[in-house]
Fold this sequence. Notes:
Layout: H1 3-11, H2 15-67, H3 80-90, E1 96-101, E2 111-112, E3 118-120, E4 128-132, E5 137-143, H4 145-152, E6 160-166, E7 180-186, E8 189-192, H5 210-216
Antiparallel strand pairs: 1-4, 2-3, 4-5, 5-6, 6-7, 7-8
Amino acid sequence: xxxxxxxxxxxxxxxxxxxxxxxxxxxxxxxxxxxxxxxxxxxxxxxxxxxxxxxxxxxxxxxxxxxxxxxxxxxxxxxxxxxxxxxxxxxxxxxxxxxxxxxxxxxxxxxxxxxxxxxxxxxxxxxxxxxxxxxxxxxxxxxxxxxxxxxxxxxxxxxxxxxxxxxxxxxxxxxxxxxxxxxxxxxxxxxxxxxxxxxxxxxxxxxxxxxxxxxxxxxxxxxx
Length: 224
């Protein structure tokens, strides 16, 4: 009896069938491991997001006590000077280990939308970037109120400071709604992007409003 016949007699499968079955099992196992790792990474990112959310709320309270309402800060939209000024007000209450202004070193590119399309290929002139002691990378921008409403889902009355946070720093996936989230300074309060509208928090869109979606869903990612 040859080896092929022996395998068939013992297992009821030919050698090729056995190898095919093993290959299928391997694919299923790899997909399972990949899925578990993705959930594990999501859990870590959400824990970091919650930490930042608590921190930025406390920091904003101190900034407002020191500097009064942002409507008196004379911030100009899409202005690097205004972004730097806003950062200077918040800096004393953050534990900052690196400042990059609008140069490289405090942010990873490309940054992607939740859909997978590219959001940022390089630093923008109007940004101010820095890194916190726990490794989170942060962008500060001053956006016109129309953009804050339409893109970040917050109904503001004035041009506003927006914080965009990469909660796991230089690690992948560098994607909105997964490890990158946004918060808006709305008057004297910091609110999650999407506070008034989370329409673009889905896997076919930008993901700019996913911070509020995560909070509203009990600190869970449920949208992809």
